[in-house]
Design brief:
Layout (H helix, E strand, L loop, with lengths): L9 E5 L3 E3 L1 H13 L3 E6 L5 E3 L4 E2 L3 E2 L10 E4 L3 H7 L3 H12 L3 E5 L3 H6 L7 E2 L5 H9 L3 E2 L4 E4 L2 E4 L5 H14 L1
Parallel strand pairs: 1-3, 1-7, 2-4, 3-6, 7-8, 8-12, 9-10
Antiparallel strand pairs: 4-5, 11-12
Length: 180
């Protein structure tokens, strides 16, 4: 029996404390774990987080306690809660910058690519985001080259558009992790 392709890889999955998009958390997580990666879920608090569709998950660690050196990739889930809990989270923004500078896989789906844009890691890179006037504006304002596609891979940076792209997004993150 062969070992899973991503055995030993560690992925930090960041979610909003409330109103994370269920599919954008659970589908990629399942894909990562099926490939042998260890997934650690982070949110503002370790109390049970609630998704927009009613799913719940107990985060393993607070965002403020994460050491990015411990992970091979950071994946930020979307959903309406991202705007409230994650967009302006300064600690998360610093984690994203540090992960990028350490040449780790940096990824976000739905409206969460705005966090990558605000952290400066999308400057000059093709990326996607859930299409709304404010999210597209945020990407362009921070120098990203917006693409209206399901998933966009720009080197080690992976962005996904919406819940329907959760599976393709998860697979693209694994592919980027393989190359990193």
């Amino acid at each position: 029996m062969t070992e899973p392709e991503h055995k030993g890889k560690k992925i930090l999955l960041v979610i909003a404390q409330e109103q994370f998009r269920d599919e954008e958390c659970f589908v990629p997580r399942q894909i990562f774990e099926a490939a042998g990666a260890k997934v650690t879920v982070a949110a503002e608090f370790t109390e049970t987080a609630k998704g927009t569709l009613g799913g719940t998950i107990k985060p393993d660690i607070k965002i403020s306690e994460v050491r990015i050196d411990d992970y091979d990739a950071i994946v930020i889930s979307g959903g309406p809660g991202s705007r409230k809990y994650l967009w302006d989270n300064q600690y998360l923004r610093e984690l994203v910058k540090e992960a990028d500078s350490l040449k780790k896989v940096v990824s976000a789906i739905c409206i969460s690519p705005v966090i990558l844009a605000r952290a400066g890691v999308l400057k000059g890179k093709e990326s996607t985001v859930f299409k709304s006037p404010d999210t597209v504006h945020e990407l362009k304002e921070h120098g990203a080259v917006y693409q209206d596609r399901e998933v966009v891979v720009s080197g080690r940076v992976v962005t996904g558009r919406d819940p329907k792209s959760a599976e393709a997004f998860g697979k693209a993150v694994l592919k980027a992790l393989k190359k990193a």
